Amino acid sequence: MAKVIMVQGTMSNAGKSLLVAGLCRIFKQDGYRVAPFKSQNMALNSFVTTEGLEMGRAQAMQAEAAGITPMVCMNPILLKPTNHTGSQVIVNGEVLGNMGAKEYFAYKKELIPKIKKAFRQLEEFADIIVIEGAGSPAEINLKQNDIVNMGLAEMVDAPVLLVGDIDRGGVFAQLLGTLMLLIEEEKERVKGLIINKFRGDKSILDPGIKFLEKKGQVPVVGVVPYMEVALEDEDSLTERFNKKQEGLIDIAVIRYPRISNFTDFNVFEQIPEVTVRYVTSVRELGHPDLIFLPGSKNTMGDLKWMRQNGLEAAIKQLSDDIPVFGICGGYQMLGCRIDDPYNAEEGGSIRGMALLPVTTVLQKQKKRCQIAGVIEKLDGIFSGISGCNFKGYEIHMGQTVYQDGIEDSRVSGIENKAVISAHHKNVYGSYIHGLFDQGNIVHGIIQALAKKKGIKIKEGVFEDYQTYKEKQYDKLAETLRNYLDMEVIYEILREAHLD
């Protein structure tokens, strides 16, 4: 029967996802079969399994760190916010429906059997299961029928490591305050504290650690430094959004309110000469070398947002000189029209940006599949990536077709007049997430931009993104081995048991 350990945090973005990934990598390196688990994930970054099921991107990343294929049982419940008060609820990889926050809060206890079943599936496979919590276990208003923090820890009898983020300040209050708000049975589950994202000389922190251990009656099992690892973030709290222009090649990604799967562009950050900026206004946009329109959980709403704040007009004007590339929802926006006859988003129809000769109709059912192929002949600035192999996945509600029979070069063919990808002049669109993960595609795009700009970029740095990520997982594991007391963590595992 699998041993289990759980990582909870004092708040969102305390670093739980990366710590789980790092522990998965360490246990893998030490010869164990290890798997991640998060019962309920709220994020707009998602992944599609080989079976065509949808799960949180963070758990897919953690599975990669563990050296295993992502499975939907690692994340049985995924919530994808559609507005400030509601989410699309995905259970075992398939859409259950849209629910308001109050409705879901009342319903979630019905999902406990599905969570337990998913966990038992992992137990059959793994020696060790590393569980990630969500937000904070001390959210009093959410503790009733909790299925993701201490409620889950009780379900599977998991010992807990509690993580605080010192980079935001107040880490001692975070950790002690969380412990104080737990009931006694919950507090007994907390076997170790971790101070995360520390910068500076640890000896200065030592008096505070002694006080923390004395007051909290829980040992500190690690002070982890602020880590410069380039791995995928779980949600929009990512610090990637705060980067400023500094590279020779400047890439701007439009950060609309419901941006999703922005991890598509992480691959460009491995190149030292490239800066990837996330922008929300015309002033921030400036005059970049490439504009990406990413995926969106509310394509029509985000298009209206761009229309209202002037970004749409600015992008259309810049597209005469600057390449524009839309992925998924961004691809749909670049077309002539989006129709929503089934109220998948906002209902009705909306005029698109008219930069691609396509129209989109949002369907009742979501398309989810993995895909591989060869980029067919392209014209324009990115003609050099013609013939490159690609692989990735599709996850979208829309069916996109060429308007009025106008056909153009395409990335991956036509099926019943539906197009996976299209381009017109220097504007490109595709439904394929992960399209840029192959090194030769990134190489072709960056070298084309460099040539247009009259500069040279070093050769030999455009490795496949998967190869690059493997190095990052090893770097993450090495750092955690140096700053976590792994002997204590293994002892916690040895003492863990399941009923």
Automatic annotation (TrEMBL):
Top-level taxon of origin: Bacteria
Protein name per Swiss-Prot or TrEMBL: Cobyric acid synthase
Boundaries of every CobB/CobQ-like glutamine amidotransferase domain copy: 250-440
PANTHER family for this protein: COBYRIC ACID SYNTHASE, DETHIOBIOTIN SYNTHETASE
UniProtKB keywords: Cobalamin biosynthesis, Glutamine amidotransferase
Purpose: Catalyzes amidations at positions B, D, E, and G on adenosylcobyrinic A,C-diamide. NH(2) groups are provided by glutamine, and one molecule of ATP is hydrogenolyzed for each amidation.
Pathway entry: Cofactor biosynthesis; adenosylcobalamin biosynthesis
CDD domains the UniProt entry points to: CobQ_N (cd05389), GATase1_CobQ (cd01750)
HAMAP family attached to this UniProt entry: CobQ (MF_00028)
Organism for this UniProt entry: Defluviitalea saccharophila
